[in-house]
Amino acid sequence: MSKPLFSHTPHPAPLRRLAALLLVLLALAMAFAAGLSLSRLESLQTRAVRSQADAAGAALRQALEAAVRFGKPLQAGVSLVGMEERVQTARQSLPGLANLVIADADGNIVQSLDPALVGRPLTALLGPDWKSGPDSPDAMAGNHNVTAVSHAGMRQLVFPVRTPEGGRAGNLVLGIPETVFAERIHAGLRSALVHMLACLLGAGVLLAVALPLAARASAPGSVFEGRDPNRRIMLAGCLVTGLALLGYSLLTIHDFRQLHRQMLQDKSLALAGAAAMDINRLLDKGLSLERMHGLDRRLGALIAGDAEIESLAVLDTGGEVRYAATSTGNTTVPLTTTRDGDPSLQFETPLQRTTDGQPQLAGLVRATLSRANLAETTRDIVLDAATVGIIALLFLVETILLVLRNGGHGPRLAHTATDAASSLPAPSAGYGAIRPVAFIFLFALDTSLSFIPLQMEALYTPLFGLAKDVVLGLPISAEMACAGLTVLASGAWIDRVGWRLPCMLGLAGAAVGSLLSAMAPDALTFIAARGITGLGYGLGIMATQGFVVANTRVDERGRGMAQLFAGVYAGSLCGGAAGAMLAERVGYAPIFLVAAGLLLALALALPLLFREGQGVASHQPPAAAASRPVRTPGALPRFLRSRAVLALACCAILPGALGLIGYLNYLLPLALIRGGASQSDVGRVLMLYSVCLIYLAPPLARIIDHSSRRHVWITIAGLLAAMGLGAYAVLDGLAAAAAATALLGLSASIAFAAQSAFALDLAETKALGEASALSITSAVERLGQVLGPLCLGAAVAVLGLGDGVAAVGLGVLAATLLFWMLTRRLGQRT
Q1: pLDDT digits over 210-248, tens only?
Q2: What is the rounded CA–CA span in Å between residue 506 and residue 543?
Q3: Whole-angstrom Cα distance, residue 605 to residue 317?
Q4: Would you list the DSSP string of 300-313?
Q5: Residues 682, 728: contact at Cβ < 8 Å?
Q6: What span, in angstroms and rounded, lies between the C-alpha atoms of 260 and 373?
Q7: What is the pTM of this model?
Q8: For the chain, which end, N or C, has fewer CB atoms within 10 Å of the first or last residue's CB respectively?
Q9: How far apart are the C-alpha atoms of 384 and 378, rounded to whole Å?
């Protein structure tokens, strides 16, 4: 009799521990996703309150401006007809309204729901930093928009009231307690927590079924008898947690879309209600709907500049449109544009006239949402959620690798073949152990990836007579220059002392640089801080490469470097996108502080993750633990004169790094932001590059490792890089940025494995020492990274964006063709 699928026999203890571990990591990944989504949640919840306040304030401001137009100044003791009713309507449509204040042109409060404020200046309400009056920046700019001011636990929304000539007649201020906004955000977080718990529960149930099934699949008598169950068990666990994370992302998208729709509905009804109140008053005075001349202009004033509302229309009892206006100011809307449309985008408030004490329907006020704006906002919500989901998934995968490789499960791997199906997946040994460290290192370092030139722009002052676009690239150039110095100097040292101490010092140095970046008061200090960060980065990245060299065989070098850079770019992807999203909410300086904390924590934890006597090289075949190389006399000059080395350095590494860093780290953020893209769009485009490195580089590295014509692969990488930069010759905007980034990512996926393997196979490298050779080639790469922002900045300054980037692409193409000509006779490995 076969054993039932669900028996009362407890699961083997290791499987229970694995399930618990995966659930904990899944919870961390969901919490990470929730943290990244907090910016969008706070924005939507804040806009939900603001939209109602904007609608109520717009109606009140319109009434005040009408009073000013008819000679009623905003002064104490001057009553405004209908204001009490309007205030009451505003309080009904905005339950969180705590105060309403009207101030004159000099900033003195003339009316308020709180009588104690009457006669006092607006600074008593808005804080001492608030400026009002004819000399305020807002007045001089002719700003007609709402200004939000937070002071003393209140969110004050300031609506400027204009005279017919466009001057300032005063201000209308609506006060909403900050607790109203906080309560809305907390409600969203509670919903996210419920979704998280539901997904964790579902994942727990699926793991309880999937892990035993995966273990039994290799048991005696099964289809996969005799096969290692660890990979199958881990695959089942990752699949279940990935599905749970996907479900959580879909629930988040649904919540955000519902919240946005509710916000627009509340806003539309508030606007329609405000318009209906004015029209009802005129109807009660005996004025017919057909005789309300100029009503379309009043409707237009209510929704002026509001991209979310397409139109506001008045319909009679027969459904015919009598008056209509759009947010762009067009008051001659054809009847068909507001008469027929998607009912889900239309919100109506009835018009009523009172006859013999009985209300009678007189028509409708219809607010119609903008379909284009709604589609764009929905797209942003979906893209943000998808971005967060991808980042969280990578975070989940890398933390699983980190825990399983360093979590102390090694003693449980000594099971016999009969009970192997119940054991935990084996932690990977060898070069793969450094990948999680590289992930955290670059995650922390690249949280600032998308805004370093933007922070420099905020601190900008003219320097050294250079053009502004060149000055904005100096922090990146300083960082790469200093990284190049440590890369060049550290190779021989790593050969002597090993990789651990240099890695710790590199992490600590990068932490100090990030801390100073957050505190930099001016441009020169910021440049110096990024230079210190570069010193730490160069030392740390060389140490991790030294780890790979020390723990791989010759035929594994490409794969080892690909695994390392998969961790590097998974961290870069997650850190860059997370930093871009969080920067929109908290600014740039706090992100530098977070990076400093993560880097310092990793430096302190490194001795625990790689204990003395627990070297990974011991897991490798004897060839991997070879003695340190002895440098051959005269090896350095021969290495530097080698035709193959010069071709690799000058025609492949240097131009490739120049185009890559100059474009990705410097030009891409500036070009997209100046083109109207959001900070999150910058992070999403940068993700394309990292995704290529994570998912394409390892399989390509296996192919390259078995190839005897690595110079061909390097040539292909150069051609792809040239095509990526050349995309700006035929495309522009976001399309050009995406195409260039994807092609550069594909190019780098090939180049990182091919260039390292090509260099390490050379006889000159073996004579010099592998770490020393890598330090020289890496220093050349850093030189290209230093020159990249300067060359791209100069090219764009002279030729413009499209032609400048394309011109650099032509330079990369010429260098690639020269490399091919110099190395085409190298058909076999040296």
Answers
A1: 888 877 765 555 444 545 566 777 788 888 888 998 899
A2: 8
A3: 74
A4: HHHSTT-TTEEEEE
A5: no
A6: 11
A7: 0.66
A8: N
A9: 10
